[in-house]
Amino acid sequence: MILMLNNYAADQWVAATGGAVPILSAIDGSTVAETGSQGLDFKAMADHARGVGGPALRAMTFHERAWMLKALAQAIMARKEELYALSASTGATRQDSWIDIEGGAGTLFAMSSKGRRELPDDVILIDGEIEPIGKRGSFIGQHVYTSLKGVAVHINAFNFPVWGMLEKLGPTLLAGVPAIVKPGTATAHLTEAAVRIMTEAGVLPAGAVQLIAGSVGDLLDHLTCQDVVSFTGSAATSIKLQSHPVIARETVRFIAERDSLNASILGPDAGPDSPEFDLFIGEVVNEMTVKAGQKCTAIRRAFVPAQWLDAAEAALRQRLGEVVVGDPSVEGVTMGALAGQAQLDDVRANARAIASQARLVFGDLNTVDAKGVAAGQGAFITPLLFRADDPWAADIVHDVEAFGPVSTLMPYRDLDDAIGLANRGLGSLVISFFTHDPLIARQFVLGVGAFHGRIVMIDRDSARESTGHGSPLPSLVHGGPGRAGGGEEMGGVRGVKHYMQRTALQGSPRTLSGVIDRWLPGAPQDDAGPHPFRLRFGELRIGKTFRTAPRTVTIEDIEHFAEFTGDKFYAHMDEEAAAANPFFPGRVAHGYLILSFAAGLFVDPAPGPVLANTGLDKLRFVKPLVPGEAMKVALTVKAKTRRNDDYGEVRWAVTVTDGGDDTVATYELLTMNAI
Ligand code: NAP
Question: What's the pTM?
Answer without folding.
Answer: 0.91
